[in-house]
Structures are given as structure tokens and as C-alpha cells.
Design goal:
By secondary structure, the protein is mainly alpha-helical. The protein is built from 13 helices and no strands. The longest helix is centred in the middle third of the chain and has 49 residues, at 112-160. This is Type II secretion system protein GspF domain-containing protein.
Length: 287
């Protein structure tokens, strides 16, 4: 019990010391993200701890994996900022869980099980947050893959009508309007760069890196290899690519349908058990 009291005291002292040292130092960094990341009251302390311990450099392998996901979600320019804030969130969670573990051990009068439960959650919650980030990236890539065949078909139609590839991309974005899909968000960036007279090859390469998907890379490579020639070579290449993309879209839709049906199994089992109880209870009471 004394050990848990000492642990709680150490964490509280560290909290107050770091809160004094980090006061008003990171307000601009934190306010930039608004409410996108929770536990804002812990953010200055965690940021100060990250900078002083050089945690991002020491955990380079793990951080690089998270940063790769942030590049896919937010782009190269914003990736480091989001990685830093995500690591800040993880440190905040670990500190709070350690404090809660010490408090549970103290309040339960030295119960090691309660302390161990707190330590378990200090590991489990960061893992869940990382998995949540991975799922967010996965969903984004799936949405891009579902929308890409339609974009390719629109480009084929517009190029057949006499438009250039650049004009076809611009027309696709204009026709789409205010859709908030991830693919069209990236295409709007492409159009903005094209209208600013940036080199087409550089713009398409940046688009491919931002999406970080093999199918998008194939699309950009196909366009870059054939857009100067134009005509039937480009159209034939895009049609072949469109066919492959539609097949992948069908597979994703089929997989989602199977996942949805598997999620219904548990509720159906509960309903079955409830029906069995309702039907069987009168017979049991009669006996």
C-alpha cells in the first residue's frame, strides 16, 4: 500500500512540475488542432516530456510507422505535426492510466489485482488508439478504391470527347461539386496545382505519394506514360485499368457484404435465445 502511495505521489509531483515548466509554451501548437485530439489539458505536459526525453527519436521505428499512416491521411506537410500530437495523446493516456493504477492500488488497500488492471489498460488503450488509426487509414483507402473506377471512366469519356487529360481532371472535379470523398479532396489539390501551372508530371507524382496506394500509382503511371501521345493508346490503357479497378471494387463490395452478414450473427443468436426463453418459460412453470 505504501508503494502505491509513493507511486501516486511521484506522478502528481511530476505532473505539477511539468505543468509549471510547460506553461504557455505549446498553446499555439495545441490550439492548431482544436478538438481533433482529446485530453488537451494533458497535452502541454506530454509535449514537454516528449521534447525533453527525445521520445520521437528514441522510438523511431514505431513513430515512423505512425507517421506513414499520417502521411496517407493528411499529406507530407502535415504528417509530422499530426504524428507529434498523436504521440502526445498516447503519452497522456499512459500517464493517466499509471495514475489511475496507483490510485486503485491505494484505495483497494494494496490489492495487486487492481493495480495490475490499471497497468493493463495503460498498454491496452494506446494499442487500441493505434489500431483505430490503422482502421481510419484502411477505410480511407477503401473509399478511394471504390471511387477511382468512376473517375477513370469519366476521364475516358472526356478524352474521347476531345479533352486533354488535364482538362478532363479539372472537369471531373467541377462535375463532382462539393463531395467530401477522400479521392476528390486529393483531386481538388491536383486541380489547384494544375491551374497554378505546376508541371503535370510533378503534380501526378505528388498525388500518387499522397494516396499511397498501388492502384493510384498504376493510374498515375498509365496517365504519365500515355498522356503525351493521347488518342487511342491512352484510352485503351485506361479502359484496361478501368476493367481491373471495377473487378477490385466488386471484390470489396462482396467482402463488405460478408462482413455485414457476419456481424448480424450475434444479434440473431440473442434474439433466438430470447424467443426460446419466451416459448419455453410457460412450459417450465407448468411442470
Amino acid at each position: 500500500m505504501i508503494i502505491y502511495g509513493i507511486l501516486v505521489g511521484i506522478i502528481v509531483v511530476i505532473y505539477f512540475v511539468l505543468s509549471v515548466l510547460s506553461r504557455n509554451q505549446y498553446d499555439e501548437v495545441i490550439e492548431e488542432f482544436g478538438d481533433q485530439y482529446p485530453l488537451k489539458f494533458m497535452a502541454p505536459i506530454s509535449l514537454h516530456l516528449i521534447y525533453k526525453t527525445r521520445l520521437l527519436e528514441r522510438l523511431h521505428t514505431q513513430v515512423s510507422s505512425i507517421q506513414g499512416k499520417m502521411i496517407s491521411l493528411y499529406g507530407t506537410r502535415e504528417a509530422y505535426k499530426h504524428t507529434r500530437m498523436f504521440m502526445t495523446q498516447l503519452v497522456s493516456v499512459v500517464l493517466l492510466c499509471l495514475l489511475a493504477a496507483g490510485m486503485l492500488g491505494l484505495l483497494s488497500e494494496g490489492d495487486h489485482f487492481m493495480f495490475g488492471a490499471g497497468l493493463f489498460f495503460s498498454i491496452l488503450i494506446p494499442v487500441l488508439l493505434v489500431n483505430q488509426l490503422s482502421n481510419k487509414e484502411k477505410i480511407r483507402k477503401q473509399r478511394i478504391l471504390l471511387e477511382l473506377p468512376e473517375v477513370v471512366n469519366k476521364i475516358i469519356l472526356l478524352v474521347n470527347a476531345g479533352e486533354t487529360v488535364q482538362q478532363a481532371l479539372i472537369r471531373c472535379v467541377e462535375l463532382n461539386g462539393g463531395d467530401d470523398s477522400p479521392l476528390y479532396e486529393e483531386l481538388r489539390v491536383v486541380v489547384n496545382k494544375l491551374t497554378s501551372n505546376e508541371p503535370f508530371a510533378d503534380v501526378m507524382n505528388d498525388f500518387s505519394k499522397k494516396c499511397a496506394m498501388q492502384d493510384v500509382s498504376i493510374f498515375t503511371t498509365t496517365v504519365l506514360l500515355n498522356y503525351r501521345k493521347g488518342g487511342q493508346d491512352l484510352i485503351l490503357s485506361l479502359r484496361e485499368l478501368s476493367h481491373d479497378l471495377w473487378e477490385k471494387r466488386k471484390n470489396i463490395s462482396r467482402t463488405k457484404g460478408e462482413e455485414a452478414s457476419s456481424k448480424l450473427v450475434f444479434p440473431l443468436m440473442l434474439i433466438f435465445v430470447a424467443v426460446m426463453i419466451i416459448v419455453g418459460y410457460p412450459a417450465i412453470t407448468i411442470l
